[in-house]
Design brief:
heterodimer; A: about 450 residues; alpha/beta; 6-stranded mixed β-sheet; 4-stranded mixed β-sheet; B: about 200 residues; alpha+beta; two-stranded parallel ribbon; 5 helices; globular
Chain lengths: ~450, ~200
């Protein structure tokens, strides 16, 4: 009996675990395959804090202030409506439950970072020892933060455990930036970014061309954390820490958290643009970055008022088609919808996961409305604009219909190490045993009946 | 009755532990000079073996075995074994461990250039800058040998103004591409120069 339960438990985890790709949620529901992003129950993340110092030079109380500031930023989301009035668009909030029982070190950190039951924690790796013990001494100075939503409840819809770890070692002695105030800003941008993951936001490459331009001008060190005037367009959830201006949320960040945790006003005051991407054979083409930006306006507004969504991101593997949903659209003003490949430079921890479906070999293009217009406009909040289906003639990683079975990720180390065809994931769900399927579906059914 | 009890127990079990997903990290850019300085060994080699395992402290890791073809730094012989935290997506699932993005994985039979950190007290090692410190070695259509890391070589040769890396690039007569595959021979030459202190 115990063996059956143990097998059921572990296989159920196989079944449930997932990760989306980018430009949207970090994790989606794969129990019901409902196309829903996971969220914290009651829209509230309950968390505990490591009582230890942030770094040699920064004490715990300061770190707590920084974390609270980041959580407040993710809570107090507003977007100007058509009248220019700021509207509260997200219902996300957090609750501080208290301190963890002891300073978290490399000796006692494992329970907080592992996918076993427990509390959600925010950890300060004061001397970088947790990072160094796991990743090697030389990486003590390269990894600034680590985070994840780790567990969900049995419904597959709600996150129950997560963590974020911040490596204070990089804060001292000019490792992150020569000036301490710049280092602090970059560290705070990292806190905001990692907490974004904890609440289930994935990376975003909105305004990627500007981020690339910034990257070409040197590293964080040589640029002193600056990316010039245009740095403000780089989202907090961009896959790389490029500038301290990522310490302020972009429109894309605000729209994404708002559609995962939507307020009534977000749904009533703004419109939605939706559509689907196909390959030349008419099969859904997942993994294409789709962007809606303000049209017929100066670059500053177009760059600012941009949001993205990766086609098919709400369903794992090759399932579920290649739909995209672009939220937070203002009524009465024109938008242009375009598509682009995901950036190939980000394949690992800092970016789009290595098992993602990432079609290559196509150029940026415009998606037209169902009537063929190059821009679209909704008349009132709550409306949905259906775009014409877009066809991109490029190899489709899902064309083989193997549902993402890459067998073993040794063959999908990162996108640069593999072919697109090998970079497809998620088929481990197929390992589900019959007994677990029966139990799981029965639970889901009963829960559904109860809700009905 | 028995089925009901089983279902109930399983329900409790999965109510507590339902899902895990993955870790995401913020990793700073590391250029070639920093990679050389931070590495314990730098080698080119073919991956011979991949063995996932759980360490005594419960951490999921993978042991990799390499047949060494060239040593650019450090003292290693024909074969090298090292254990890196995490592992492939499928093995992470088998071990009920979170999948850690950004750590390079190695495919049996493939050729790599790796800038490896020293072993930690947990017996773990990883490339410097994680995915940045592991390069896939491949043969281009023109027959030249190219290398590309997990970040598409982004930042590899940047941030070099006034450094030994800049002077090494200058001495080697090479241009400094900002990203994309580069010649193995160029990278080899630059590593040698940096390691030997030339250009300083």
């Amino acid at each position: 009996m115990k063996k059956i339960l143990a097998a059921g438990f572990s296989l159920f985890i196989f079944f449930l675990q997932t990760h989306s790709y980018a430009g949207g949620p970090f994790a989606v529901d794969v129990i019901n395959d409902s196309g829903v992003a996971l969220r914290w129950k009651n829209d509230t993340m309950n968390w505990y804090l490591d009582p230890g110092r942030v770094s040699n030079s920064v004490e715990n109380s300061t770190g707590k202030d920084w974390v609270n500031e980041a959580l407040d930023t993710w809570r107090d989301i507003t977007i100007p409506n058509a009248e220019g009035e700021p509207v509260k668009t997200s219902t996300f909030k957090s609750h501080y439950e208290g301190n963890l029982p002891a300073d978290v070190t490399s000796q006692n950190s494992h329970p907080y970072l592992s996918a076993s039951s427990g509390v959600s924690s925010i950890i300060f790796d004061e001397d970088g020892d947790i990072t160094a013990k796991l990743l090697g001494a030389s990486n003590r100075a390269t990894v600034v933060g680590l985070s994840a939503p780790l567990l969900s409840d049995y419904s597959g819809l709600y996150i129950t455990k997560g963590f974020a770890l911040f490596n204070g070692y990089v804060l001292d002695d000019g490792k992150l930036a020569p000036e301490s105030d710049v280092a602090e800003k970059l560290f705070k941008a990292t806190i905001l970014h990692e907490i974004g993951h904890m609440i289930n936001l994935d990376h975003s490459q909105v305004n990627d061309s500007i981020a690339q331009e910034c990257g070409r001008e040197g590293t964080l060190y040589t640029r002193g954390g600056e990316c010039g005037e245009k740095g403000k367009y780089i989202p907090t959830m961009y896959p790389e820490l490029l500038t301290f201006t990522q310490g302020a949320l972009s429109m894309d960040d605000r729209v994404t958290v708002s559609w995962i945790y939507p307020s009534t006003e977000f749904q009533s005051d703004f419109c939605l643009i939706t559509g689907e991407i196909f390959d030349a054979d008419g099969k859904p083409l997942k993994g294409v970055n789709v962007i809606a930006s303000r049209a017929d306006v100066e670059e500053d507004i177009a760059r600012t008022d941009s949001r993205s969504f990766v086609s098919g991101v709400l369903h794992s593997g090759c399932k579920g088609g290649a739909k995209y949903y672009l939220y937070g659209i203002l009524p009465g003003v024109p938008y242009q919808v375009s598509y682009e490949p995901l950036n190939s430079a980000y394949t690992g921890a800092s970016g789009f996961e290595p098992n993602i479906i990432k079609p290559r070999g196509f150029e940026t293009g415009i998606i037209t409305s169902s009537s063929g217009a190059s821009t679209v406009k909704c008349s009132k909040g709550g409306d949905t604009i259906e775009m014409a289906s877009a066809t991109i003639d490029t190899p489709n990683p899902c064309a083989s219909e193997d549902d993402g079975s890459n067998g073993d990720a040794e063959s999908s180390a990162s996108c640069s190490f593999t072919t697109a065809g090998g970079a497809v994931g998620t088929a481990a769900f197929l390992f589900l045993s019959i007994i677990t399927s029966v139990l799981a579906s029965d639970l889901v059914r009963r829960r559904h009946e109860k809700n009905v | 009755m028995k089925i009901k009890t089983s279902a109930c127990a399983a329900f409790l079990c999965i109510s507590l532990f339902a899902i895990f997903v993955a870790d995401a990290a913020t990793i700073l850019p590391v250029n070639l000079e920093e990679m050389v300085a931070g590495s314990d060994v730098v080698f080119r080699g073919r991956c011979l073996g991949v063995a996932p395992k759980r360490l005594p402290n419960g951490i999921f890791a993978t042991k990799y075995t390499f047949e060494i073809s060239e040593v650019l730094k450090g003292d290693i012989r024909e074969e090298l074994e090292f254990t890196q935290v995490g592992g492939s997506l499928s093995n992470s699932k088998k071990f009920n461990a979170p999948y850690i993005y950004g750590l390079p994985l190695y495919k049996v039979g493939s050729d790599y250039l790796v800038f490896l950190s020293e072993e930690t007290s947990m017996g773990l090692r990883a490339p410097v800058g994680l995915e940045q410190g592991a390069f896939k070695v491949s043969i281009a259509a023109d027959g030249s040998v190219k290398v590309l890391n997990g970040r598409g070589n982004k930042n590899l040769l940047t941030g070099a103004v006034g450094t030994s890396l800049a002077k090494s690039i200058e001495f080697s007569g090479a241009s400094a591409p900002t990203s994309g595959p580069i010649d193995y021979s160029l990278l080899f030459d630059l590593v040698r120069r940096i390691e030997n202190g030339e250009g300083l």
